[in-house]
Design a protein that fits this description.
Distance between the termini: 73 Å
Radius of gyration: 24 Å
Strand content: 5-15%
Helix content: 40-55%
Number of strands: 15
Strand order of the largest sheet: 2-1-3-4-5-6-7
Amino acid sequence: MTKVLLIHPPIRITEPPYHPPLGLLSIAAVLDALGEQVAVLDLNAFRISLDAFRHEIRADEWDVVGFSALTSQYKHLKKLVPIVKEEHPDALIIGGGGGFSAQPREWLRWLPIDVIVIGEGENTIVELMDVVYSKRFNEVRGIAYKENGKVKFTEPRPFIGMPDSGVFESLDDLPYPAWDLAPVEVYLQNSRIPLCPATMDPNIRRLSITHERGCPYDCRFCYHCAMSARDYRRIYGREFKGWPAIRRPSPEYVVNHIKYLRMKYAINFVSMLDENLLADKKWCLEFADLYEREGLAGLVRFGCLGHPSCFDPALIRRLKDIGLTYVSIGAESADQHVLDALNKRSTVEQIQNAIDVCIKCEVYPITTWMITPDDDVESVLRTIRFWRRNQIKCRPFFETPYVATPLFEKYKDKIIDYFLEDEEKRRIAELEREGKTEEVEKIKDRALERYVERLGDAIDLAINLNPNFDDLQMLGLQQIMFEQDERRLIKWSKIRKRAHTNF
């Protein structure tokens, strides 16, 4: 029996811990089914100090320590992983999740990690546990690892549901997340979340779930944690023709999961975090019928996410009948030029229709918006006026070039240059004259790591790629949009034009 500790770093520390680490808990469930001794340390639920963390992991000996993290959690990993290495020098340290999968080469260089699992890890972890002691990592598909200081990749693992993917042949074969190992009460205590009246009910008992893998869309600011063919192409640098963009388990699997949570934790609300639940109308209608037959309608209400093009009135009405209370709509902008630049594959008319359908069906439309590198005063004005017409009040995100997104690939060189220090730029110029390209790449690698450490929630400005506004103006623009101060925006625009003309 192997002793495994799985660690979830903090995330969005300005907010309460709203959502449990579902991917990590899925891996924990698989390990538990294998008969391994598994523990979960959720540092987002328990936001303890580094000294307390060191004390906690000293309490036992561990053969394997696993981290699951998104790119925005890297700043915490940079502190946590070395502590694990110090306290458990002989343990195999494994990384998984969206951040590790997005930059396996870099994170193996930057962190004292032994192995990175790329993409979904349930089948990979089964095979990886067989080589914990032999270290025959070359026998395990779907990983990157260090050997003699060099990063090596094994063959990409087929997605669950494809032939020869591993012991789990279907998403329906997966065990439910290991809720018994999670601090569920912490998340239940933070059930209230400001999305709609139902989610602010004092008596709400809410948990989050997600089952969808991948996405049928390819927005330039998004990345799907190496669970789609597009992500694999960016990681491995080759095509994966015939590999699916999106997969789901059966409606029965999802309904039974919700029934389990209702019976075990007495939940009365579930946040369905799938990126676009509404994309498959047939699946949703089958889910609704089964949900009703199993007696969950009205007993456990829920909310979900949807692309603006997917708002069929009959579908929303049916989901409303069984308990749908809100849909989060990725609107992003009310300017068509900006939407096209984002590769949203949606229109302003579809956004308006999505809002109208929700209101007619008495479902709360929650819209998300962003300020992009393609925005100018005119596009921002269009968005503000759209908000006014629809009585929307929100603070927009900044479109952030998270690693492995098309936006990041487009601006990668500019990002690195922005995070190079003056002395490093001078040194690069010298090294380039001397033809020392390897040394140049090492300096740029350090700059890239500084950028990744800077990344956090998209409500904050990590880097400004907009040629029309400087950093301070971008922050001011965010506030003007929040206040919907159209007059101040127009006045400011006129002042800027005069200044440029005089110059």
